[in-house]
Design a protein that fits this description.
Oligomer: single chain
Shape: elongated
Strand order of the largest sheet: 13-23-24-25-21-26-27
Helix content: 40-55%
Strand content: 15-25%
Low-confidence stretches: 689-696, 835-857
Largest sheet: 7 strands, mixed
Radius of gyration: 37 Å
Number of helices: 30
């Protein structure tokens, strides 16, 4: 919508338009006095999104300019609303005081706030990172950078091959990026991916890939940059200069051109939007996804690691573990949960530390009490470096650092090597604390303009000026007494207004007593106002003192802030050590509260859990029934779990995965005993859900997720499958479920440890023919009144699903239940063949041939079936029938 303003612009509107042209794609907040105003299209958007009144300027000229405004002191709250909705905001402030000599105050954009560069606490979740991402490359060779400007965390990665773009999207999803930067040359490609396929293509997987990409891309603000910002030479030079190094080799970036290009663009954007150097970004790390246990978005969602399926956050693994005392610790804990380690040595050092803290109740409590005093040092430090920190932020930093000596004292008694390393990493930063203590008042005002930020005694000049300004009342009273005596005017008063300054006021009746050295200043109805050379000089001193106090306080504060920023690396080292200590202490606290045991981690392929419990479910029930698990890559590689709904199968599957994740973040686990081989990735196909918004049925969603598992699982992976094939016809579903199980058992590259819950009881016949299959069942107890779910998983196969009993408990009409039982009896009567064997299990290959075994439904079997169908039994003699059967038998051997 184009809005036409007045043809002849005022100087202020000219200034606005010039500024707006330099910052396209932003909502420009333009400072006018005590308000920030939005004009034209920006005003229409702002009025709607912020729910504030839309007005207009220059209505009298016939071409009104839409406008709306917010008070300057409430700016952050309004900006926060716009940022959460994905807008980019430019803040244009007055950079000089109105003097009266100039009609137009100089204004400049002092900062651009975007979803990916927000640093204010109002814009951020304390326990979440806020990642800005930049992507670069040519689709078959791509790099991505992930920068959290609010903490300085800076990570990059790179992929090559036909699936490079798909893997980049996976990382964008995993990091939960708020804003994506990309070169303009990729704009058409990205727009096509955002809109998705125009119609379904032949490959359902291709369509789904488009749609998944669209969801990830639509969730973030997308910001195009000129291609030169991604230039390799520019990016490398910028990074080298910023990090103060001669080469990027020490950061693992050797040969990773696309990663360097993406990182350079991210840093360039951060510095441009903040109008600052962003010196708190002190390092950059290159990672491969294989450096961590891989948890794809589907697995993270199904296991409810950080968010419930319904969007809640109370009943998640993160919520159970989060006994952290600091925001830094909460962010690190969430990062560990989403990216568990695969480094055995690292995990054992963490477990040693957790065990040390778990066994030392007094020390653990002392540490937790001291950590409560620690604020979000990482984000305080970011604001200090970006020039937005207030005096209260500096006091918060000082109070946080004051806890460090106490924490080090408590850690002195620890025997864990990791705790010793963390203790040595804690810099007490006495020089920084001393500087802030000497310079900043204990209770500074919210704004520098209020005065009183700098502590008395820090600056002799400031103290002198304050004394002069503070003694003004006494000085004025003395002048007033002296002038009354000199003139004989007892009603004479010395006053002050912001418009006229200091003056002597004399009533009309006493004007004849005014001495000749008085200079008339203003005439009122009942009095005259005068000044004197002495009063003029005093006024000049007082006013200049107050102005100089404000200027000097600002200068001193900014100097203190710069000095604190000079200790950035030391403060960051301490902040990271405090965050890690907070997580380890929280894990120890949870282990003690929940009666967790220390897992034994190994490099072998066995997972052995005794009396394992679901860490989240057990917090929601009065009594949780624990279960054992034994699985490996040879004798027990695929466990078929049968039993009724509500019997505990899904909980059993999920708790196995959650126990592995807990162990691989360095946590104790909810079990009596656990010996766990390291897992490289966990996959889940759990539950059923439509995805109508993206045009996918339950069954399509299930098959796409299953396909990904079959293509990417490895022998070191753990796969959870729940009810594969239930979304289609019975025979189709059973055929697929059987074939998937065979594939996961037999394929040398993808034979993962698999827990397979199903209601297809025919699947249990796999145990007869595949040596790595074992059957387990969820026990129930039948009574005269129905069934009781025991939630116990034991070896064996369930002979019933008890679906009708579950339906009865759900309240279906009794007539429906009775009829269902009658139908079930008829169906079960025809389940076995004339020989008494399960029909599905006929003609299975021998156990010795399991590695090369054909599926039940291969072409040989189909051919024999067709030949049998074509035989006319009425025309065959007994001898001919024997010959036909012998021929068919030879084909099966």
């Amino acid at each position: 919508m184009e809005i036409k303003g007045p043809t002849k612009l005022t100087p202020m509107l000219k200034q606005y338009h010039e500024t707006k042209r330099r910052y396209p794609g932003t909502l420009l907040f333009f400072r006018l006095g005590d308000f920030y105003e939005l004009f034209y299209e920006d005003a229409l958007i702002g009025s709607k999104e912020l729910e504030i009144t839309l007005t207009a300027r220059h209505k009298e000229r016939g071409a009104p300019v839409p406008m709306c405004g917010v008070p300057h002191h409430a700016l952050n709250a309004y900006v926060a609303k716009l940022i959460r909705k994905g807008y980019r905001v430019a803040i244009c402030d007055q950079v000089e005081e109105p003097t009266g000599r100039s009609k137009l105050v100089k204004r400049e954009v002092v900062r651009i706030v975007t979803p990916g560069t927000a640093i204010e606490s109002q814009l951020l979740e304390a326990s979440d990172h806020n990642y800005l991402s930049a992507i670069a490359g040519n689709l078959t060779e791509m790099g991505a950078a992930f920068l959290d400007l609010s903490t300085g965390d800076f990570q990059v990665t790179e992929f090559s091959g036909e699936d490079a773009w798909e893997r980049i999207v996976e990382q964008l999803d995993a990091f939960g990026v708020r804003e994506i930067l990309y070169p303009k040359s990729l704009e058409d490609f990205l727009n096509a991916r955002v809109s998705g396929p125009a119609s379904d293509e032949p490959s359902g997987a291709t369509v789904d890939q488009f749609r998944r990409e669209a969801v990830v891309l639509q969730r973030a603000t997308r910001t195009p940059l000129d291609d030169w910002a991604f230039d390799e030479d520019y990016a490398a030079t910028l990074l080298v200069d910023h990090l103060g190094v001669a080469t990027l080799d020490g950061f693992g970036l050797t040969g990773h051109t696309q990663a360097i290009r993406a990182a350079g663009a991210a840093l360039h954007y951060a510095r441009e939007t903040q109008q600052a150097q962003a010196s708190h970004i002190t390092e950059i790390s290159f990672f491969q996804p294989s450096d961590y246990m891989i948890l794809d978005p589907s697995t993270v969602r199904h296991l409810e690691l950080v968010q419930q399926l319904d969007g809640g956050k109370d009943h998640t693994l993160f919520a159970v573990l989060n006994a952290t005392e600091t925001a830094m610790g909460a962010r690190l804990l969430k990062q560990w949960i989403l990216r568990p380690s695969v480094n055995l040595a690292e995990l054992n050092t963490r477990l040693d530390a957790v065990e040390d803290l778990k066994n030392a109740l007094v020390r653990r409590d002392q540490l937790r009490q001291h950590l409560k005093r620690v604020q979000d040092v990482e984000r305080l430090l970011a604001r200090i470096n970006l020039g937005t920190a207030t005096a209260r932020d500096l006091i918060g930093l000082k109070q946080s650092l004051s806890a460090v000596p106490l924490i080090k004292e408590v850690l002195a008694e620890s025997s864990s090597s990791l705790l010793e390393v963390l203790r040595e990493s804690l810099d007490e930063l006495n020089d920084v604390c001393d500087l802030i203590g000497r310079a900043i008042s204990d209770h500074p005002p919210a704004s520098l303009a209020e005065g009183g930020t700098i502590r008395p005694g820090y600056s002799a000049e400031l103290d002198e000026l304050r004394a002069l300004a503070g003694d003004s009342k006494g000085a004025i009273a003395a002048i007033e007494r002296r002038e009354r005596q000199r003139t004989g005017i007892s009603s004479l008063k010395v006053k002050f207004t912001s418009v006229f300054g200091y003056f002597i006021e004399v009533s009309k009746a006493n004007l004849h007593l005014v001495p000749p050295d008085y200079e008339r200043k203003q005439t009122l109805v009942g009095a005259e106002r005068f000044t004197t050379p002495e009063l003029k000089e005093y006024e000049r001193k007082i006013l200049s003192a107050e102005q100089r106090i404000a200027e000097l306080e600002a200068e001193l504060f900014h100097d203190v802030r710069r000095q604190v920023a000079g200790a950035t690396r030391r403060i960051q080292q301490t902040a990271r050590a405090l965050a890690q200590l907070d997580v380890l202490t929280a894990l120890a606290e949870t282990a003690a509260r929940r009666n967790y045991c220390r897992p034994l981690l190994t490099e072998d392929d066995e997972i052995v859990i005794k009396d394992g419990r679901h860490p989240v479910v057990e917090t929601q029930v009065d009594r949780f029934v624990p279960n054992d698990l034994f699985i490996n890559n040879t004798t027990d590689r695929l466990l078929i779990v049968t039993g009724p709904n509500m019997g505990g199968k899904s909980v059993y599957l999920r708790q196995a995965a959650l126990i592995c994740i807990l162990a691989q973040i360095g946590s104790f686990v909810p079990a009596r005993e656990a010996r766990l081989g390291l897992v490289d990735r966990i996959f889940t196909r759990v539950g059923t859900s439509d995805d109508v918004a993206r045009g996918r049925s339950t069954f399509m969603t299930e098959m796409i997720e299953t396909a990904k598992i079959l293509h990417t699982a490895t022998p070191r992976s753990l796969v959870l499958l729940d009810e594969i094939g239930r979304g289609t016809a019975t025979f189709d579903g059973l055929s697929l479920a059987w074939a998937v199980a065979e594939y996961l058992h037999n394929n040398a590259n993808h034979a993962a440890k698999t827990l397979y819950a199903t209601h297809y009881h025919e699947m249990t016949d796999l145990e007869k023919v595949l040596p790595g299959v074992r059957n387990y069942q969820a026990l129930v107890k039948e009574t005269q009144g129905g069934i009781v779910f025991l939630h116990k998983i034991v070896e064996g196969r369930a002979n019933k699903s008890y679906g009708i009993e579950v339906a009865r408990l759900a309240g279906l009409p009794q007539s429906v239940i009775a009829r269902a039982r009658e139908i079930l009896a008829n169906l079960e009567a025809n389940e076995l063949d004339p020989m008494g064997r399960p029909k599905l299990a006929r003609h299975l290959p021998s156990r010795a041939d399991w590695k090369e075994q054909p599926t039940l439904f291969d072409s040989t079997h189909q051919q024999i079936i067709e030949e049998l169908r074509q035989i006319d039994l009425d025309r065959l003699t007994p001898e001919e029938a024997k010959e036909v059967l012998a021929a068919l038998k030879r084909k099966l051997i």
